[in-house]
Amino acid sequence: MPKCAYFERGHSQDGLLESLDGWAINKIPIWDVLKTNILAYDMVLIPSHYNQDVLMKLTHRLKAFVKYGGLLVALGAVACKHEWIPYCKYQQRDIELNSMRVVDTDSPEAKKIFNELKVPDNLRFQTGFTTHGHLTCAAETCRQLIVDNDNHEAVVMAIIEPKGSDGKMFVTTLDPDCHAIVGYALEEIKDYNPHAIKLFQNILNWAKYERQSRIVKWWRNCQGLVKTIWSSLLVLCLIIVCLIALVAFMYSKIDKNLFVTFAAISSISSFILTLNSMRRK
């Protein structure tokens, strides 16, 4: 069964993840995100307005996740520290609904994502609607879905397949999950929009069929496993060296100064490698 890592925000729209039927969904609280080995998952889903400081610390791991065959879905608004988004650049200029142009409605991907939606009209999630900035990316890797009508390099929604990578990304500066509120007093919540629910469900329905081959998944899992095992083996070797130095010192084979040097180098190196291993998980 494919696995999805969802960076949980604790909002009611989390219930819409039921659209990913057939997937094992792991809702990861913010305090566990940096300790999670995302290479063990098939998809990583990042909701709108997620903590930017946490994402900045994940930049290299998110890029590696896509490189080794993972599917990264990044939604909506970000207020600062935009450099975390791999393979594209975030720009702060917002785009109004009247300036949005849907450039792809016919591909199989677009038909799934815009299913039963009148675009761009149904993408107006609130009064005074604008996007939350826009993205730019290399034309040869970016399959544009929605762009700025006046500047086609300003992307609102796209599927990105980076060169040299086995995975792909879905990125948008719309925030359908933020307006896809479910479960209580919907008529009293000004941000609620039924079209947002539909778009969010469509994105998830598209994502769950974007399964990579077993070989790619196996290779990505091996990459994550090797990184952890390699660090662990190095730590074990350093501990063994330290023990050998201790025995040699006890039997007067080496002097005190040399023993202290061995012990200090082994201890410091083991500590650094252990910290590095914990950051990769």
Helical fraction equals: 25-40%
| Rg for CA atoms | 23 Å
CATH class of the largest domain equals Alpha Beta
Cα-to-Cα separation, first versus last residue: 21 Å
**Number of structural domains:** 2
How many DSSP H or I helices? 8
Q: Note the overall shape.
A: elongated
Helix-strand string: EEHEHHEEEHEEEEHHHH
Please render the helix and strand layout as text.
Elements: E1 3-7, E2 24-28, H1 30-33, E3 43-46, H2 52-57, H3 59-67, E4 71-74, E5 89-91, E6 100-102, H4 108-113, E7 134-136, E8 142-148, E9 151-160, E10 168-172, H5 176-179, H6 194-208, H7 214-250, H8 256-280
Parallel strand pairs: 1-2, 1-3, 3-4, 4-10
Antiparallel strand pairs: 5-7, 6-8, 8-9, 9-10
Helix pairs in contact: 7-8
Architecture overview:
It is built from eight helices and ten strands. A hairpin with a 7-residue loop joins strand 9 and strand 10. The protein is of the alpha/beta class and 281 residues long. The protein starts with a strand and ends with a helix. It is elongated, with a radius of gyration of 23 Å. An eight-stranded mixed β-sheet has the order 2-1-3-4-10-9-8-6. It has a two-stranded antiparallel sheet with strand order 5-7.
Give a brief rundown of this model.
The chain is of the alpha/beta class. 38% of the residues lie in helices and 17% in strands.
